[in-house]
Amino acid sequence: MTLEQQDKKYVLQTYARNYTNFVKGVGSTLYDDEGKDYIDFASGIGVNSVGHGHPILVEAIAQQAQSIIHISNLQVIEPQAKLAQKIVELSGYDMGIFFANSGAEANEGAIKIARKYGETQFEKKRYKVITLEHSFHGRTITTVKATGQESFHTPHFSPYPDGFSYEKSIADVYKAIDSETVAVLIELVQGEGGVEPFDKAEIQNLSAHLKSKDILLIVDEVQTGVYRTGEFLASNLYEIEPDIITLAKGLGGGMPIGAVMTTHKEILTFGEHGSTFGGNYLSSRAGLAVLEILSSLDDEGIIDEMHLYFSQKSKQLVQRYPKLFDKEVGLGLMRGLRAKDAQIQSAIVQNCMSQGLIVLKAGRNTVRFLPSITISKDEIDEGFRRFEKAINTL
Ligand SMILES: *Cc1c(COP(=O)(O)O)cnc(C)c1O
């Protein structure tokens, strides 16, 4: 049986998978089982924040695995407490953290915190959460309902939880607020929706308005967090003070970990929320290593340098190939090229793969780049050389 046959026979077919069998990764280069190399502009959908096989991360995981992998959240977990402190310090916000295992789970935690806040802090219960069209917040029944894309709300999975509504734009959020609104949940750069950054002043105004109404601002930083946009959090870049922030993807460098952080440290009490795996020894230790690596790169100014270098290269493509692309979009190392249509988008992603370059799709027509934060100039150069080869044939 081939690997493809084995996968198709035994794994539930929920992904339109590519069947290249990768066996090794070094930095931002991956190797398949035939020895062919690929430049990785996807980093496992923004997860491999420090690339593949980073020695500090590998050493941390190996050491931790040799001592303790997991006990449970019934005991104090030293690397978890350290990771929480590190995240809070890097964020600059006075918040407390709950650890989960994924982005969707972190968002579930955020929604629970908001719901309890709405239940306990007002005379009349507030429970409604406003999100945006083209947003993406996860795949659980609740977070899929929070996701502002009708195609995700198929009747197959109904009934969905009540209390979610979607607005077309930030400006529309103001009109949608009513006396039962408890929170607004947004990404600052919509990732899955098409790499769409929001305007800084618009977000700052919304944030101030919500504060004046005692409505919580939840920022889903599952994709934008952990230096993806240049700062530790996109919320830092936008200079806002959200009530709740969620993290996941890049935080563990590939180890599954999610986090919800909030200024409302007393809202949840014993037993109201929990997770068997969340923030265990192994994933927390990995998170610490990731933050150690990235915060020192940030201090040296290397993260800013790399995202400028990367974005210059991707912007040049729009000038050189105006027949293929409308514009270049994104923030930091979260970038996209708006293709003229979905057909061009698909052809590019496929051609890139044959040229030895991994890129992603986003939205209906965006080719998305989410390289690791530690990608080198050489890998960026080689990646864009391969990208041009891939689009030259179109
Ligand atoms: C990926 C993503 C999620 C979901 O994360 P999972 O780990 O797949 O559950 C939620 N929100 C945003 C913004 C994301 O990019």
Give a verbal description of the structure:
With 394 residues, the protein is an alpha/beta fold. The protein contains 13 helices and 17 strands. The protein has two domains: 241 residues, 3-Layer(aba) Sandwich (Aspartate Aminotransferase, domain 2); 72 residues, Aspartate Aminotransferase, domain 1, CATH 3.90.1150.10. The strands form four sheets. A seven-stranded mixed beta sheet has the order 4-12-11-10-7-5-6, sandwiched between helices. It has a four-stranded mixed beta sheet with strand order 1-2-3-15. The longest helix has 19 residues. It is globular, with a radius of gyration of 21 Å. The two termini are 35 Å apart. The model has no long low-confidence stretch (mean pLDDT 97). It binds pyridoxal-5'-phosphate. The site of pyridoxal-5'-phosphate has 15 residues, from helix 5.
